[in-house]
Amino acid sequence: MNTRDATTVGLGPPPNQAGPRGDCELQPGDRVDKYIIREVIGEGGFAVVFVAEQQQPLRRVALKLIKLGMDTRQVIARFEAERQALAMMDHPNVAKVFDAGASKEGRPFFAMEYVPGESITEYCERHRLTIGERLSLFIQACEAVQHAHQKGIIHRDIKPSNVLVTVKDGTPEVKVIDFGVAKAISHRLTEKTVYTEHGQVIGTPEYMSPEQAEMTGLDVDTRTDIYSLGVLLYELLVGVLPFDTSKLRWAGYPEIQRIVREEEPDTPSVRLLMLAGEGRVIADKRRCDVRTMLPKLQGDLDWITIKALDKDRTRRYSSASEFAADARRYLNDIPVLAGPPSARYWLKKFVARHTVGALATSIVVFALLAGIVVSTTFAIGQARARADAVEAVALLYEARHSRQESAGDAEEMLLTVVDLLRRLGKEHPTLVSALNSLADLYMSQQRFEEAEAVLLEAHAVLDRAPPDVDLQQQRDVFEALAVLYDAWDKPDKAARSRAASAAGTDHD
User: Fold this and answer.
1) Disulfide: which of 274, 305, 317, 371 matches 323 by Cβ 3.0-4.6 Å?
2) Among 157, 266, 302, 388, which one carries the catalytic annotation?
3) CB neighbours of 69 closer than 8 A, spacing ≥ 6?
4) What's the pLDDT tens digit per position in 76-86?
5) What are the tens digits of pLDDT across the range 214-262?
6) Strand ranges (E), 205-357
7) 357: exposed, middle or buried (C-beta count within 10 Å: 0-12, 13-18, 19+)?
8) What is the reported pTM?
9) At what angle do helices 320-331 and 222-238 cross, to 10 degrees?
């Protein structure tokens, strides 16, 4: 357990958002019931977490002490019911809850297994774990959640600070903590305490499922944990969350609900490209570079993550074990169960969220989309893909006649086209044309790092293409890189790119 645990549901924001540390008067050596306080390791809006010692049996525990102001009698009753349910769990990746009660002042507490570890994201970043190594730890978290679900327990607040990594006999081991705590105090989150005095939402909106955002609790089932696991996987893969953290933290609750329920996240591979220069740092933390990391994300990992994050819970994985099984299939080079949503489904989502008049009427983009119909027919050779491509163009054609949109949305539309092409066939040369258009847009805005990343992806796509692909596309990409490097004041790279273009050889 570490100080990040203070952000759990029921605890509220971290200390710098919740007031001074002096909110708790207990000092080392003080007693709470049968536990002796040793040190504070976390504090938030609803509770303080201590390392404490129990004499009989002799052990260290993490003691979560709820602050004054809650309905103690009802809360303690729920705590006790949860403790009894949690006592049934016995899994190596689940931190146990030993006890529940109240201090002499009437403040409810949980006594839990003390886990001297760090959050899964911090551990992975600090040790620069590869994507495969991160997935292996993530699978352990899924197995812990599956065990709880089999016991009828939903976590409700899966996030890095509740998924800790400790080292046992030299091997990292995941421990999921705080099962049942969110449920025991969740009724308060639908009443007076939805907002703090500064207008902050209590809880963890970044990891909250769309049905949790409703705040009624009526539609929350095990699939809400699947969504939160999907957010965690997204963060493990690309180092950021599907939605902007600061935007969620400072938004009013109606806006948080709208974002979580309506906005569709970019796939991990698209998000990596959009991070531009920061993407290099992220890739380095995974012991690779952007060029080698992109192919790892595109396809299976994109599909696995987006399936877990689907707004429609019936389209998510039906269980945590199914989620873990698909991650194992990826690691073992076995086809995954998750697949790309059909182009029709995916574009309907886009059209429902945006108007696409200005860009859809562009003859270049429309011709590009129309080209998908022809090219994917031969490249993929599947009737479903042909039908999806036709429907995709039909949808955009319909949208361009019924809606209007400013040219400022050109980037988002191009990203949409690029992602669609990846879903239809990530190795298809048609993708290169879309990437070149996106790079042109970035260059016009002097976003050189992003333009470079996109052009390098285009080069990687052509490298994977069949040998009979027209070499002119490869030369065009090198020439585009040369123009980029000229504008970016990198003459040596520009010269190498032009030499590669002239020779039709690989790019250094």
Assistant:
1) 317
2) 157
3) none
4) 666 666 667 67
5) 766 556 889 999 999 999 999 999 999 998 777 766 767 778 788 888 8
6) none
7) middle
8) 0.63
9) 30
